[in-house]
Amino acid sequence: MTKSDVVPLVLLLSIYKGVSGFSYLSKDGVEITYSTTFKRECRGDMDILITFESISLAECVMACGMRQHCKALNYIKVFNKCNLYFSDETESDRVKRSCVEIKAADINVIKKPCPECDADETCIPANKRCETTECVNFDRLDNGFVNGNLWGVNDNVQYVCNDGKTTVHGIKCLPDGLWNISSDICTPTVTNVALGKPTNMSSYEFDFDGWKGVDGDTNQRWSGNSCFHTDSDHKSWWRVDLGKVFRIVRVVLYNRVDCCASRASNLDLLFGTTEDNMDIVRQVDGQIGDTHTFNFTESEEARFVQVMLRYSGNLHLCEVQVFGFVTFGEGKFYHDEPFGDLSKIA
Question: pLDDT tens for residues 265-275?
Fold first, then answer.
């Protein structure tokens, strides 16, 4: 709508204690009466459904009247700015700015050129039909909330899970008025992110090099030809490059079970976002068992994962599994909350 679309009847219904009543008729056939209240402290940004710039007060009122989700509005005259809200006025959400405030209950739509619209639709007077213009559907967002005021169809927003720390990107308002949100959107997909990734090691004996630690084969016998083996170096080590930064929740080491298991003793586990910035995150004193699991109840960030002997000797293992999920920086998840029983994460 433009300002010329609205023909004011200039009918002043009442003026009493800051409350005024008006009637307007648009050239598109919308007839509305409403009462206004002037406030010296304006409603703030909480629960905004949609914002319009450079429109008149009458257009603002009609925009609310055409939307079944609109429960209130404010109009900041100095900016010709219209905020529509999906809830009634919240007195605790106030800013020091004068404006006109109107509740949907004070708007009477006498006539509009659209048929009765569905709950999620808006009457578009110029087209004389009902269309989906925003996504709301709060009853379906039971595991978090949309961050910001972009509710229009095709808008992309962030989704914040109820823990307050997990942010999911790429959430879109679809043409049917629904967000593209799955029921498990706040549950990160935890997988073995080391599988098939490039490896390096301090040295290797025979052809038992590092890639055998991430080949997916957990055969723990030397005859299975799926174990890596270093020379007897000072602080022998093996490292995997995950390719990008992940949040790590668990690392599992598979020791040999046929011979020489004691060589996997006094181990350090190191994480780093770069190869030059590796830190010890866990240590094992003495020999590990057939398998050894490092759990991180608060996930740790890493691109490089390294296993290292604390002293001189041969290092050999038959598989190293690194369970994690992508991070905020990669456009999906960022999570700092405890995961609980990590043994249940496959």
Answer: 999 999 999 99
Co-location of 225 and 260 in the same domain? yes
The reply to whether the predicted model has a pTM over 0.70 is: no
Domain CATH code at residue 61: 3.50.4.10
> How do residues 305-318 score in pLDDT, each as one tens digit?
999 999 999 999 99
HEC-encoded secondary structure of the chain: CCHHHEEECCCCCEEECCEEEEEEEECCCCEEEEEEEEECCEECCCCEEEEECCCCHHHHHHHHHCECCCCEEEEEHHHCEEEEECCCCCCCCEECCCEEEEEHHHEEEEECCCCCCCCCCEEECCCCEEECCECCCHHHCCCEEEECCCCECCCEEEEEECCCCCEEEEEEECCCCCECCCCCCCCCCCEECCCCCCEEECCCCCCCCHHHHHCCCCCCCHHHCCCEECCCEECCEEEEEEEEEEEEEEEEEECCCCCCHHHCEEEEEEEECCCCCEEEEEEEEEECCCEEEEEEEEEEEEEEEEEEECCEECCEECEEEEEEEECHHHCCCCCCCCCCCHHHCC
